[in-house]
Amino acid sequence: MEKTVCLHVTEVARNLDLTVLEPGNGSVVFSTAEIGRPGLQFTGFYEHFLPQRVQLIGNAEMHYLRTLTYEDISQRMERFMGFKIPCIVCARGNMPPQALLDCAKRHAVPVFLSDMRTDDLGHRILSYLGRELAPSILIHGVLLDVFGVGVLLQGPSGIGKSETAVEMIKMGHRLVADDVVEITRVAPDRLSGRAPELTRHLIEVRGIGIVDVRYLYGIGAVNAEKTIDFCIELELWNENTQYDRTGTEGRSQRILDVELPTTRVPVSPGRNLSVVVEVAARNFRLRKLGYNASEDFHRKTRETLER
User: Fold this and answer.
1) Any catalytic annotation for residue 245?
2) Diameter over CA atoms, the chain
3) Known catalytic residue: 145?
4) Catalytic residue at 63?
């Protein structure tokens, strides 16, 4: 089933830098990020017309409408808006004819105006709606930006995720989300995480309470959103568990149908988790650049044994 989102016209206008000419019923329902250019529809051709798209009126379409009388525009708009289109966006600062606005009011279709070029505006709408309509979930964890690497900390409550995050912030790294992470699949193989608006910039430290990282450490200590590169699962040390000693285990977990590299880190008294997380992020960057210390170690071991 396709995902749909219902957004207030003022929110759409604010996020896309648009002016509201006609609010319609006060909201817009989006079911696709694709854009429609209704030039052919204005002439009466409706084969292969997809009314669920945002209808973007550019320079050519607007100048064509201005060659028509009020009655002609009204007749054509009645048919056009009768398909229950989500909204109309007029580009290049071109004010639509009054007949279009009057018809939009009767059909409760929101109409927006933008000064942007048509192509640039279309790309902005595609990007915005692609983000809004992307699959997303909420998970328990902490998301950090460590040396530009998005590190997701997971583990049971009370194991020390938030305390580790505070230590990481003191070391110069940035908090993205604490306790609840909103994860969105922004591409077939890429996940992005951010904090819900209610908990943005906040972190819970047991025994102290809720603190605002932005005010305690400055705006440079937070990041609004970050691509998630890998996950660290924190768990209490268990002497009966075999932990990866050489980095060749290659574990992963699937989130929103995206494979996320995952490593288990045991937690025991006296272990400096912030340093471990920092080393993991540095090592991840090295692997991305083509150097794998584990593989290099095994290669040297084989060569030594062969000699």
Assistant:
1) yes
2) 92
3) no
4) no
